[in-house]
From TrEMBL:
InterPro entries hit by this protein: Cadherin (IPR039808), Cadherin-like_dom (IPR002126), Cadherin-like_sf (IPR015919), Cadherin_CS (IPR020894), Cadherin_Y-type_LIR (IPR000233), Catenin-bd_sf (IPR027397)
Species in which this protein is naturally found: Rhinopomastus cyanomelas
Compartments it resides in: Cell membrane
Bilayer topology annotation: Single-pass type I membrane protein
GO molecular function annotations of the record: beta-catenin binding; cadherin binding; calcium ion binding
Name recorded for this polypeptide: CAD10 protein
Domain Cadherin residue range list: 4-84, 85-193, 194-308, 309-413, 413-527
Length: 713
């Protein structure tokens, strides 16, 4: 209540209020000066308010006293319960922790005034989670209350914590929160194999690195505490197998370390150990943190391919060996217990020229064609070994054949030498330096010797002893008019065994040279130019010669094309053939071109007979052609053609109609040609064809059928 000393109680003064909350939260009675609160005041919103009050004359509105300031302080009451910042807390603690291990601290706040009574004094207690956890009343720290809590038994716990003000006394306000506590894993469990013995199987043909199977030890822990490393610590197969730890699945993968052989060993025993890689020293007393198991591996038999005694073979052989010489032998065996026989063969894709062959039974490789180091120094073969009982099961091995050199090639000139000598050359003058090459390759290197095949009065050869030689003149002066070209045989020999030599001929032209020895002209025709033969005439002569050569070549080519093809294309085809000449002329009646009777046997009957193979268009009286006298030229021609056919390799090896008509005298079978069909009268009897064998059965049926038809009719 505000009151002014000037207030006489007659209502002449008026009280006014200003400041925090004036007119809203606080109002003043302008007549009495009483201050009232318009609503409930919350200290937690504002603890004090500063106000100003003044008394003024109601009529003049002038202050009668100076303005005064005063503070209204709000006294606290316990109207707020403790609250936690989080409704749910999450915490963790390692399993097997000792009693009293701190888990987490929770803190509640109270909006009441901590300096006024016990309204803000908070006490913590546990409503849920006993007997596993406890909480400190003053601090709110949650601690473990039981020893050796095992995560493998129970992993998650829910604890409810209460915070109560007024020091936890009756009538105090409270708030709660939930704490979810998880036990984290520690390595307190060793790995354990579920079986004491594990059986695995693998075929003996499995290559190195093949996975046989897996073993796994179980561990109740998780994460890195459950990581296990596997190793083979004992057994009779420690050198044959490996074990690798698979980190994702924590399995031990057993693999093949060396090739297996069923015939050598069929069963292996391994002792495999699994051990934790991260061991906590605090829990050594729970160990040992490892376990062992026995793994038995059975090797299964398979039909294996043959095995060669070596991975590759190298044979060396001289190039001059005789055909059929054995250059080496490959060996292979069947690794199976049945021990099947082996058959060897050569892969012909590696020996396209079929230079080598192999004995299928013992694997001996021998030559079937001559060897030549200068053609091919190495031959890379592939030998195939297959079981006779199972030819599809094969093995290959490379065979390298090195051809050793033999001195079988004579040295020759290195290049073609265009040698000339000047007409004004002096004795002892160098006109050419020659060298040689040899296809052979002796171990000591090439060494050649040069000499003349015979003493030459004009030139000589001087060996430089460095595989070269010099050609020197032996006399002064040469003349193109006398001799324009000299041929000088030079003998070149090597020093290997056996000594090989060859003779190379140098063509030495005589040329006109200047005083410096430079060649000016070597043509012998140049001497005739002053006589009046021009260059144009020489060119014309050369053109004529070229044209004549072309004509001769064309004529020879046409003659070759017209040469008849062999009647028999295969040596094995000895059947009767009907040869078609495709050019039969005008027939027997065509006598305008020549008299066919000239080609016939003079002793043959010349009477014209009717042909049986065609129907005559008209009846005519056969006329007799006078016998032609014996023509010597025709007989010589026929004999010449007969001799050519006897020596011709393309001629058939049996009787056939040649291009000449003279067939000789008194043929037993007479002529089967239609050319002679008109020389006999009436029908002939061809029954004798059946007596000539099966090759003439077809002719016998063709010509003898008519008679049989007549008989049956």
């Amino acid at each position: 209540q505000l009151h002014s000393d000037q207030d006489k109680g007659d209502g002449s003064l008026k009280y006014i209020l200003s400041g925090d909350g004036a007119g809203t939260l606080f109002i003043i009675d302008e007549k009495t000066g009483d201050i009232h609160a318009t609503r409930r005041i919350d200290r937690e919103e504002k603890a004090f308010y500063t106000l100003r009050a003044q008394a003024i004359n109601r009529r003049t509105l002038r202050p009668v006293e100076p303005e005064s300031e005063f503070v209204i302080k709000i006294h606290d009451i316990n109207d707020n319960e403790p609250t936690f910042p989080e409704k749910i807390y999450t915490a963790s603690v390692p399993e097997m922790s000792v009693v009293g291990t701190s888990v987490v601290q929770v803190t509640a706040t109270d909006a009441d005034d901590p300096s006024y009574g016990n309204s803000a004094r908070i006490i913590y207690s546990i409503l849920q989670g006993q007997p596993y956890f406890s909480v400190e009343p003053e601090t709110g720290i949650i601690r473990t209350a039981l020893p050796n809590m095992n995560r493998e038994n129970r992993e998650h716990y829910q604890v409810v914590i209460q915070a109560k003000d007024m020091g936890g006394q009756m009538g105090g306000l409270s708030g709660t929160t939930t704490v979810n506590i998880t036990l984290t894993d520690v390595n307190d469990n060793p790995p354990r194999f579920p079986q004491s013995t594990i059986h695995l199987r693998i075929p003996e043909s499995s290559p190195v690195g093949t996975s046989i199977g897996s073993v796994k030890a179980t561990d109740a822990d998780t994460g890195k505490n459950a990581e296990v490393e596997y190793r083979i610590i004992d057994g009779d197969g420690t050198d044959m197998f490996d074990i690798v730890t698979e980190k994702y699945t924590q399995e031990g993968i057993i693999t093949v370390r060396k090739p297996l052989d069923y015939e050598i060993r069929r069963l292996y025993t391994l002792k495999v150990e699994a051990e934790n890689t991260h061991v906590d020293p605090r829990f050594y007393y729970l160990g040992p943190f490892k376990d062992t198991t026995i793994v038995k591996i059975s090797v299964e038999d398979v039909d294996e391919p043959p095995v060669f005694s070596r991975s590759s073979y190298l044979f060396e052989v001289h190039e001059d060996i005789e055909l059929g010489t054995i250059i080496g032998t490959v060996m292979a065996r069947d690794p199976d217990s049945a021990s099947s026989a082996i058959r060897f063969s050569l892969d012909r894709h590696t020996d396209l020229d079929r230079i080598f062959n192999i004995h299928s039974g013992n694997g001996s490789i021998y030559t079937s064609k001559p060897l030549d180091r200068e053609v091919s120094q190495w031959h890379n073969l592939s030998v195939i070994a297959a079981e006779i009982n199972n030819p599809k099961d094969t093995t290959r091995v490379p065979v390298y054949v090195r051809i050793l050199d033999v001195n079988d090639n004579a040295p020759q000139f290195a290049v073609f030498y265009d040698t000339f000598v000047c007409e004004n050359a002096r004795a002892g003058q160098l006109i050419q330096t020659i060298s040689a090459v040899d296809k052979d390759d002796p171990l000591g290197g090439q060494k050649f010797f040069f000499s003349l095949a015979a003493v030459n009065p004009n030139f000589t050869v001087q060996d430089n002893e460095d595989n070269t030689a010099r050609i020197l003149t032996r006399r002064n002066g040469f003349s193109r008019q006398e001799i324009s070209t000299y041929l000088l045989p030079v003998v070149i020999s090597d020093n290997d065994y056996p000594i090989q030599s060859s003779t190379g001929t140098l063509t030495i032209r005589v040329c006109a040279c200047d005083s410096q020895g430079n060649m000016q002209s070597c043509s012998a025709e140049a001497l005739l130019l002053p006589a009046g033969l021009s260059t144009g005439a020489l060119v014309a002569i050369l053109l004529c010669i070229i044209i004549l050569l072309v004509i001769v070549v064309l004529f020879a080519a046409l003659k070759r094309q017209r040469k008849k093809e062999p009647l028999i294309l295969s040596k094995e085809d000895i059947r009767d053939n009907i040869v078609s000449y495709n050019d039969e002329g005008g027939g027997e009646e065509d006598t305008q071109a020549f008299d066919i009777g000239t080609l016939r046997n003079p002793a043959a009957i010349e009477d014209k007979k009717l042909r049986r193979d065609i129907i005559p268009e008209m009846l005519f009286v056969p006329r007799r052609t006078p016998s032609a006298p014996d023509n010597t030229d025709v007989r010589d021609f026929i004999n010449q053609r007969l001799k050519e056919h006897d020596t011709d390799p393309s001629a058939p090896p049996y009787d056939s109609l040649a291009t000449y008509a003279y067939e000789g005298n008194d043929s037993i079978a007479e002529s089967l040609s239609s050319l002679e069909s008109g020389t006999t009268e009436g029908d002939q009897n061809y029954d004798y064809l059946r007596e000539w064998g099966p090759r003439f059965n077809k002719l016998a049926e063709m010509y003898g059928g008519g008679e049989s038809d007549k008989d049956t009719s």
